[in-house]
Amino acid sequence: MKTYILSIIFMIFLANNYLFAQGNNLVVYNECGQKFTLALNGKKISEAGNTYFKVVDLKEDRYLLHLDFANEKLKPIDKEVVFKNKGEQYSYYLSYVKGKFRLSKPILGPLTDSIPGQPSPFPFHNGTNK
Known about the structure:
By secondary structure, the protein is mostly beta strands. Helix content is 14%, strand content 43%. It contains one helix and eleven strands; from the N terminus they run αβββββββββββ. The strands form two sheets. Strands 1, 4, 7, 8, 9, 10 and 11 form a seven-stranded mixed beta sheet that branches. Strands 3-2-5-6 form a four-stranded antiparallel beta sheet, with no helix packed on it.
């Protein structure tokens, strides 16, 4: 009987974690005004270029991030993004160094609606605009 009760408690715990598991948010932005498009695992998030993208509720641990710039003279950026912790926001800043855009190291923080000093445009939920 004790094993039966412990098994039920364990199953309730697993179901609770599965049903209420939080995904991660990904923010990529720059303040230089250079528009870019964002793709995750080969799937374009938006056809329109922007200087700020936020994708929310990402469930996978790894994504291949691809940035294409509106200015075709700039080389695209490919980077593997690894989410080590669930329920956090990973923000990447694009900086312009020696004629190239570079992606910063991730800035980790709690899940938020926006980042300080940035407008909060409509977020993309798991790669779709809801």
